[in-house]
Amino acid sequence: MKYNIFFLFCFIVQFSIAQPDSLYIKKKLIVNTPTPTWLNTNKASIDLNEVAFVNWNAGGSNSISAIVSQVSALEYSFKNFKWTSGLTARYGINQQESEVLKKTDDLLEISSSVGYKRSQESKWYYSARLTFSTQFANGYTYPDTSNPISKFMAPGYLFFGGGMEYGKDIKKLSFYASPLTFKSTYVLDQDLANAGSFGVEPAVYDDDGNVLIPGEKVREELGILITNYYEVDVAQNVSLKSTANFYTDYLNSFGNIDVDWQLLVGFKVNNFINASLGSQLKYDNDVKNLIVIDEDADEYGQSGAKVQWKQLLGIGFVVDF
After folding, report:
1. For the chain, domain boundaries
2. What is the pLDDT of residues 279-296, one digit of tens each?
């Protein structure tokens, strides 16, 4: 009986000493085990600008403008796999005294990318990307608002391809190259398609101006896409973001490079008020400009592609949620 009690006592002491170590090891293993992570960010902003005059000797016209934007991102990561999706929506208007309401900004963009790297130390990702963009409302050559030059899904752009992506920090610095990227241009408005807008095949007319063959609504290309993203804090509460895209088609005018370069400088006043200075430069060889051949006969033609540039300056309210 005494030996039984002694052995029972030794077993209890041994268990009480060993148990904390086993619990610690178990906890340590759980902490070091990779787990899937989800990260969701949302940012809504509105930039306002208003000018009013009363008996102003130097002259001027009252005006008000606003740009509303929404940027959302969802990121999933697990071990060496990463998936990121994003939504960007912007719409801006300007109203000047005695003039029609004008559109100043218009964008709807959806993007998604997946990447896989062979090891934690590697900076190279095997990646696939999909990007779709269009606009919300009609676009005009002001002050003419009777003949829209663009509409929802006219144009619409779809890019899909795969390649390699390099980035020391994929969120702040990345370089992506895809030797095979499929590009589709959609012009779903038949009038714009018949005119051959945005590079689609125009309609064929007879001598009386009747449509023999309607214009095509889709243009497809296969080419090379190279993109670069860079973000840096240039000073306290001052950030700079640069996004550059370069695309050329293998089959149609290889070597003519489509360029889309966006530069944004952000100034943070506090958690709710920001200022931004943005610039966007574009060149697309398929986008021609309308020129007037005979104004009396209402006859128009197309000139060559030109460099497009847009600049924005805004101060507004920002909400993260």
Report:
1. 1-33, 37-320
2. 999 998 888 665 444 444
> What gap in Å lies between CA 309 and CA 129, rounded to an integer?
26
pTM given for the model: 0.82
Give the model confidence (pLDDT) of 41-70 as tens digits: 999 999 988 888 887 877 778 889 999 999
Highest averaged pLDDT of the listed ranges 1-10, 33-42, 230-239, 297-306: 230-239
pLDDT over 70, % of the chain: 84
**Domain 37-320, what fold?**
Outer membrane phospholipase (ompla); Chain C (2.40.230)
Q: Is the dihedral of CA 254, 255, 256, 257 positive or negative?
A: positive
